[in-house]
Protein backbone atom coordinates (compact mmCIF):
# COMPACT_ATOMS: atom_id res chain seq x y z
CA UNK A 1 0.00 0.00 0.00
CA UNK A 2 1.33 3.43 -0.96
CA UNK A 3 2.20 5.63 1.99
CA UNK A 4 0.07 8.74 2.26
CA UNK A 5 2.05 11.96 2.29
CA UNK A 6 1.17 15.58 2.89
CA UNK A 7 0.58 18.09 0.11
CA UNK A 8 3.79 19.85 1.09
CA UNK A 9 5.78 16.63 0.87
CA UNK A 10 4.16 15.89 -2.47
CA UNK A 11 5.36 19.23 -3.84
CA UNK A 12 8.94 18.60 -2.75
CA UNK A 13 8.81 15.14 -4.32
CA UNK A 14 7.36 16.67 -7.49
CA UNK A 15 10.25 19.14 -7.72
CA UNK A 16 12.86 16.47 -7.08
CA UNK A 17 11.47 14.01 -9.61
CA UNK A 18 10.12 16.28 -12.34
CA UNK A 19 12.57 19.17 -12.53
CA UNK A 20 14.99 19.50 -15.43
CA UNK A 21 18.14 21.66 -15.49
CA UNK A 22 16.25 24.35 -17.42
CA UNK A 23 13.61 24.38 -14.67
CA UNK A 24 16.27 25.04 -12.04
CA UNK A 25 17.47 28.07 -13.98
CA UNK A 26 13.92 29.40 -14.34
CA UNK A 27 13.14 28.89 -10.67
CA UNK A 28 16.30 30.70 -9.58
CA UNK A 29 15.61 33.57 -11.96
CA UNK A 30 12.01 33.86 -10.79
CA UNK A 31 13.10 34.43 -7.19
CA UNK A 32 13.43 38.11 -8.02
CA UNK A 33 9.65 38.29 -8.41
CA UNK A 34 8.05 34.95 -7.48
CA UNK A 35 5.00 33.97 -9.47
CA UNK A 36 5.50 36.42 -12.33
CA UNK A 37 7.39 34.11 -14.69
CA UNK A 38 5.51 30.94 -15.59
CA UNK A 39 7.43 27.80 -14.62
CA UNK A 40 5.74 24.69 -16.03
CA UNK A 41 6.97 22.27 -13.36
CA UNK A 42 5.43 24.46 -10.64
CA UNK A 43 2.25 25.20 -12.57
CA UNK A 44 1.60 21.51 -13.18
CA UNK A 45 1.52 20.91 -9.44
CA UNK A 46 -0.60 23.98 -8.70
CA UNK A 47 -3.12 22.84 -11.31
CA UNK A 48 -3.66 19.70 -9.22
CA UNK A 49 -4.32 21.49 -5.93
CA UNK A 50 -6.00 24.79 -6.87
CA UNK A 51 -9.55 25.07 -8.11
CA UNK A 52 -10.98 28.04 -9.99
CA UNK A 53 -10.60 30.11 -6.83
CA UNK A 54 -6.91 30.88 -7.11
CA UNK A 55 -5.12 31.85 -3.90
CA UNK A 56 -2.55 34.53 -4.76
CA UNK A 57 -0.45 34.04 -1.62
CA UNK A 58 -0.47 30.26 -2.00
CA UNK A 59 0.78 30.55 -5.57
CA UNK A 60 3.52 33.01 -4.59
CA UNK A 61 4.71 30.76 -1.74
CA UNK A 62 4.93 27.67 -3.95
CA UNK A 63 7.00 29.64 -6.45
CA UNK A 64 9.14 31.08 -3.66
CA UNK A 65 9.92 27.70 -2.11
CA UNK A 66 10.65 26.23 -5.54
CA UNK A 67 13.11 29.03 -6.23
CA UNK A 68 14.83 28.70 -2.86
CA UNK A 69 15.08 24.94 -3.32
CA UNK A 70 16.61 25.44 -6.77
CA UNK A 71 19.38 27.62 -5.33
CA UNK A 72 20.56 24.67 -3.23
CA UNK A 73 20.43 22.05 -6.00
CA UNK A 74 22.83 21.40 -8.88
CA UNK A 75 21.80 19.94 -12.22
CA UNK A 76 23.93 16.87 -11.55
CA UNK A 77 21.83 16.02 -8.47
CA UNK A 78 18.54 15.73 -10.34
CA UNK A 79 19.11 12.19 -11.60
CA UNK A 80 20.01 11.08 -8.09
CA UNK A 81 16.79 12.61 -6.76
CA UNK A 82 14.70 10.69 -9.30
CA UNK A 83 16.13 7.41 -8.05
CA UNK A 84 15.38 8.13 -4.41
CA UNK A 85 12.17 6.75 -2.92
CA UNK A 86 12.22 8.21 0.59
CA UNK A 87 10.34 11.37 1.52
CA UNK A 88 11.27 14.13 3.91
CA UNK A 89 10.33 12.99 7.43
CA UNK A 90 7.26 14.54 8.97
CA UNK A 91 6.82 15.25 12.70
CA UNK A 92 3.69 13.09 12.71
CA UNK A 93 5.31 9.94 11.36
CA UNK A 94 5.40 6.88 13.61
CA UNK A 95 9.15 7.01 14.17
CA UNK A 96 8.78 10.57 15.47
CA UNK A 97 5.80 9.80 17.68
CA UNK A 98 6.62 11.29 21.10
CA UNK A 99 6.72 9.23 24.26
CA UNK A 100 6.93 10.29 27.87
CA UNK A 101 10.50 10.49 29.12
CA UNK A 102 10.64 8.85 32.57
CA UNK A 103 14.10 10.32 33.22
CA UNK A 104 13.19 13.93 32.53
CA UNK A 105 9.64 13.70 33.75
CA UNK A 106 8.53 15.68 30.71
CA UNK A 107 5.25 14.74 29.03
CA UNK A 108 5.09 13.47 25.45
CA UNK A 109 3.81 16.81 24.18
CA UNK A 110 7.10 18.48 25.10
CA UNK A 111 9.10 16.04 22.96
CA UNK A 112 6.68 16.48 20.07
CA UNK A 113 7.22 20.24 20.20
CA UNK A 114 11.00 19.72 20.25
CA UNK A 115 10.79 17.52 17.16
CA UNK A 116 8.75 20.18 15.39
CA UNK A 117 11.16 22.98 16.27
CA UNK A 118 14.09 21.07 14.79
CA UNK A 119 12.37 21.14 11.39
CA UNK A 120 11.90 24.91 11.29
CA UNK A 121 14.08 27.40 9.49
CA UNK A 122 14.67 28.99 12.88
CA UNK A 123 16.56 25.90 14.00
CA UNK A 124 18.61 25.82 10.78
CA UNK A 125 19.57 29.48 11.21
CA UNK A 126 20.54 28.80 14.82
CA UNK A 127 22.89 26.06 13.60
CA UNK A 128 24.45 28.56 11.20
CA UNK A 129 24.75 31.11 14.01
CA UNK A 130 26.51 28.63 16.28
CA UNK A 131 28.78 27.35 13.50
CA UNK A 132 29.96 30.92 12.85
CA UNK A 133 30.68 31.59 16.56
CA UNK A 134 27.47 33.54 17.13
CA UNK A 135 28.01 36.70 15.07
CA UNK A 136 25.58 39.49 15.84
CA UNK A 137 24.99 40.04 12.12
CA UNK A 138 23.28 36.66 11.67
CA UNK A 139 21.00 37.22 14.64
CA UNK A 140 20.10 40.65 13.26
CA UNK A 141 19.34 39.16 9.84
CA UNK A 142 17.14 36.56 11.51
CA UNK A 143 15.17 39.15 13.46
CA UNK A 144 14.78 41.21 10.29
CA UNK A 145 13.49 38.13 8.48
CA UNK A 146 10.87 37.55 11.16
CA UNK A 147 9.64 41.10 10.64
CA UNK A 148 9.35 40.75 6.84
CA UNK A 149 6.07 41.49 5.09
CA UNK A 150 4.91 39.90 1.84
CA UNK A 151 7.05 42.15 -0.34
CA UNK A 152 10.20 41.86 1.78
CA UNK A 153 10.00 38.13 2.47
CA UNK A 154 11.36 36.74 -0.85
CA UNK A 155 14.48 38.94 -0.77
CA UNK A 156 15.24 38.31 2.90
CA UNK A 157 14.72 34.57 2.57
CA UNK A 158 16.99 34.47 -0.48
CA UNK A 159 19.72 36.25 1.48
CA UNK A 160 19.38 33.84 4.39
CA UNK A 161 19.37 30.79 2.13
CA UNK A 162 22.65 31.92 0.57
CA UNK A 163 24.21 31.95 4.03
CA UNK A 164 22.74 28.57 4.97
CA UNK A 165 23.95 26.78 1.86
CA UNK A 166 27.47 28.09 2.44
CA UNK A 167 27.67 26.08 5.69
CA UNK A 168 27.96 22.29 5.36
CA UNK A 169 25.69 19.97 7.29
CA UNK A 170 22.65 22.22 7.79
CA UNK A 171 19.46 20.52 6.63
CA UNK A 172 16.50 22.43 5.27
CA UNK A 173 13.13 20.71 5.63
CA UNK A 174 11.48 22.05 2.51
CA UNK A 175 8.01 20.68 3.18
CA UNK A 176 8.05 22.28 6.63
CA UNK A 177 9.26 25.58 5.18
CA UNK A 178 6.44 25.52 2.63
CA UNK A 179 3.88 24.79 5.34
CA UNK A 180 5.18 27.63 7.50
CA UNK A 181 5.30 30.20 4.71
CA UNK A 182 1.71 29.43 3.72
CA UNK A 183 0.79 30.54 7.26
CA UNK A 184 3.14 33.54 7.33
CA UNK A 185 0.33 36.10 7.33
CA UNK A 186 -1.75 34.49 10.07
CA UNK A 187 -2.97 36.77 12.84
CA UNK A 188 -0.69 36.69 15.85
CA UNK A 189 2.30 35.56 13.74
CA UNK A 190 2.43 31.99 15.06
CA UNK A 191 5.05 30.93 12.49
CA UNK A 192 7.38 33.80 13.32
CA UNK A 193 7.00 33.03 17.02
CA UNK A 194 7.73 29.35 16.41
CA UNK A 195 10.89 30.19 14.45
CA UNK A 196 12.03 32.58 17.17
CA UNK A 197 11.52 29.96 19.89
CA UNK A 198 13.36 27.37 17.79
CA UNK A 199 16.30 29.72 17.22
CA UNK A 200 16.79 30.82 20.81
CA UNK A 201 16.08 27.38 22.26
CA UNK A 202 18.71 25.85 19.98
CA UNK A 203 21.23 28.56 20.82
CA UNK A 204 20.59 28.10 24.53
CA UNK A 205 20.82 24.30 24.50
CA UNK A 206 23.55 23.74 21.93
CA UNK A 207 25.51 26.92 22.45
CA UNK A 208 25.92 26.48 26.18
CA UNK A 209 23.98 29.57 27.21
CA UNK A 210 22.36 29.55 30.61
UniProtKB/TrEMBL annotation:
Pfam families registered for this protein in UniProt: CRISPR_Cse2
Region entry Disordered, spans: 79-106
Superkingdom, taxonomy of origin: Bacteria
Protein name, UniProt field: CRISPR-associated protein Cse2
Amino acid sequence: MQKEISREQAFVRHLRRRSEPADLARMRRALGDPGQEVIPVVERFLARIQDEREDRWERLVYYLVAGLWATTVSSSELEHFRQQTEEEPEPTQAEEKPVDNPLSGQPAAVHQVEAGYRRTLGHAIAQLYLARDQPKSIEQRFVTLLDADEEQLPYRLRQMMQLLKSEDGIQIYWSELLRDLLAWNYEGKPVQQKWARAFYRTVSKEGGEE
